[in-house]
Amino acid sequence: MTYTAIPRKYRPQRFSEVTGQEFITETLRNAVATGRVAHAYIFAGPRGVGKTTTARIVAKALNCENPKNGEPCNQCLQCVEIVKGSHPDVIEIDAASNRGVDQIRELRESVHYAPVKGKKKVYIIDEFHMLTKEAFNALLKTLEEPPEHVVFILATTELDRIPPTILSRCQKFIFRRIPEETIVKTLKEICQKENVECEEEALRLIAISSEGCMRDAESLLDQAIALGQGKVETKTVSEFLGILTGKEVRELLSLGFRGEKEELKKRLKKLEIEGYNPVYVAKQLIELIEREFLSNSEFSEEELTAAFEIVSRGYRELQTHPYPFTLLFFTLYKLSYFNEVKKISELLKSGIKVTGKESSTEKKTKNGTVNTLKAFIERSIDKGTAVEIYPKNYTAYQTLKSKIDKLKEFYGKEIKLIEPEVKRVEVRKISEESEKKIDSMIKILNAKIIELRHKERDESTGS
Ligand SMILES: Nc1ncnc2c1ncn2[C@@H]1O[C@H](COP(=O)(O)OP(=O)(O)OP(=O)(O)O)[C@@H](O)[C@H]1O
Ligand SMILES: [Mg+2]
Ligand SMILES: [Zn+2]
What is the model's pTM? Predict the structure, then answer.
């Protein structure tokens, strides 16, 4: 038995097998089923996402002897010949090598002959944008009034190179990049059919590297199977593609947060030497941060939100940076500043107000449920007709003061709010080095310390 490459072997043969383009395939299937097929289509979109595949399915569905709900049977003589590429009425033209006006004139002549075997003549013109200007013009008239028995499918990866005169005469379908999840699922099914053992993470790495192109994903899977001698393992695939495993990405993030300069530098240097793609590293970091944010992470919400900002900024700059790995190093190292987040939050508690962006406490009180208010209360003592409430700090005191009605309602009694003592010393406890880091962090977050609580308080009491 001869070996067939995976992309060819698993080329979808019916509309329902084309993944990730459901809107297009459903519309086309319906059009065929109800006999409302347009005479010219443009299939545009990135490479390897199913344009030629879908065009051939349309050709089959239109010529099939036993179509069902617009799907071809794939068994009749017509279907079989179209799959083999030997059907006389399905004409595939590669515009990249037939660019000129002569070829198009020839085509224009042949259009008028009735189909030899099937019901419709289907012209599939690939790389359509490669035609010369004269060739486009020669085609215009035919596109405008093609004979009843003809359907054109013009496939292109570069829609913006098609003249508007042509565009307006065709029905357009924009094919999308295939989502990572969908690629993983498709690859998994292929592995099952091929009886190949695979690790899901390995397939995920292939999906990342294929950037939404199914053909690339399938070719890479082919190579991975050959490389792993029938097994698709994360470790092998990771090295072969130059993409980190999930565990390695997590380690980089942790090293950054912990500020372990030397180890971080060492790891990144190794990746650079081994030819890893820094853009993928950043992309994987961002994906990890999101996953961590949505699960029970060892990192706090503040840390992850800040990490997202910082790494995203790094990612944008990476594309043009002359030293991408150095940029990655500093991007990750910046995360260590966020160890100071805890100290900042203590500062906040002791009354320093951070502005520039709405602080999270402010946001919460706006939604103002009693439960969030409770977070501001150190303790409460029921005195019979009234409740004495001790706020956690001065900011909390002010918040509670503005929500006293809510508290009354909740306790069903009068409220006596106890104003807390000011403790200046708390603020001074932070070391100079910490203060520096806090300063840079605040800059990064685009925030500013505007006032110390005691100042604010002195003013309000007029002393
Ligand atoms: N949406 C998809 N669902 C399933 N397999 C797909 C899909 N898109 C592409 N493939 C796989 O990739 C191979 C190539 O697809 P196809 O020739 O349709 O790509 P294309 O969009 O025409 O790309 P190009 O612009 O490079 O011509 C197919 O044989 C098939 O195995
Ligand atoms: Mg194609
Ligand atoms: Zn058929």
Answer: 0.70
